[in-house]
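User: Can you recover a sequence for this backbone? Please restate the input before giving your answer.

Assistant: Of course. Working from this structure:
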């Protein structure tokens, strides 16, 4: 299945890299602003079109490609805050619309993608999109009313994770660990913890308490985080991004 990406920037580039790595799949074709004059040809050559331009560029891009859309096309928008019914209107209802929210870990085949379930999207198109995103990570299908919340959690989430990683590396540096060692120690610890959580049905609080032995160092570190209201700050950041 030929995939075309309009907007090969941060997210489009990450998806292109991951989709290109699939065995036996046709090479992904893509455009940027500089090659926008090729958008209509890209649509004609593709069965699935991924829209990865900024939300404010989206209405014009969709209206521009609308004449080349066919009912078989699956047109997937990754734009934050843009509803499926808006996409349908801009495209004159000429293609099967899907609204999705992937994230940049797609670059290493570890995207978390949420696909919107909405009356504006047919089930077959959602399944095509799900299969595509499953190739570059993990996919869930949720009600469209949750898409802004999902954006705040998994779309923005890598930025929060990188900030946490930076902060832990800073702490490691202050304790005398070289950056290259600290980078691996921190990243692998977060990766392993996330994998451990997904492999069990236990609450993260339970897993946290397992590490915090009485009188030990972990509980002193955890209490310092509570003193600085880190838990509330992280929850507030997610709520701010989703509101
Ligand atoms: N970044 C993320 O982590 C992330 C996560 C989830 C969803 N998203 C969504 O993904 C979309 C893109 O975000 P981004 O961060 O990847 O932005 P970006 O890095 O600015 O990429 C947008 C790309 O679209 C190109 N472009 C603009 N107008 C175009 C046109 N008419 N035809 C073809 N290409 C065009 C831009 O080219 P120029 O660079 O030349 O302007 C750029 O390469 C947004 O709608 C965002 O909501 C992003």
């Amino acid at each position: 299945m030929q995939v075309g990406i309009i907007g090969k920037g941060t997210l489009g580039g990450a998806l292109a890299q991951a989709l290109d790595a699939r065995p036996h799949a046709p090479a992904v074709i893509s455009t940027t602003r500089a090659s926008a004059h090729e958008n209509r040809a890209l649509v004609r050559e593709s069965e699935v079109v991924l829209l990865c331009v900024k939300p404010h560029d989206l209405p014009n891009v969709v209206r521009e490609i609308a004449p080349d859309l066919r009912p078989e096309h699956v047109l997937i928008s990754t734009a934050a805050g843009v509803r499926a019914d808006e996409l349908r209107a801009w495209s004159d209802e000429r293609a099967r619309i899907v609204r999705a929210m992937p994230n940049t870990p797609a670059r290493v085949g570890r995207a978390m993608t949420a696909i919107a379930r909405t009356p504006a999207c047919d089930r077959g198109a959602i399944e095509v999109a799900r299969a595509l995103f499953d190739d570059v990570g993990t996919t869930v299908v949720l009600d469209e009313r949750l898409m802004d919340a999902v954006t705040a959690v998994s779309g923005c989430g890598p930025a929060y994770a990188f900030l946490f990683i930076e902060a832990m590396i800073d702490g490691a540096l202050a304790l005398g660990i070289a950056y290259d060692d600290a980078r691996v120690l921190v990243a692998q610890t977060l990766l392993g913890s996330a994998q451990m959580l997904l492999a069990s049905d236990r609450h993260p609080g339970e897993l946290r308490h397992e590490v915090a032995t009485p009188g030990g160092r972990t509980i002193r570190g955890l209490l310092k985080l509570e003193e600085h209201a880190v838990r509330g700050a992280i929850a507030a950041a997610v709520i701010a991004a989703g509101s």
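That completes the design. Residues 157-242 form a domain with the ProC C-terminal domain-like fold fold (CATH 1.10.3730.10).
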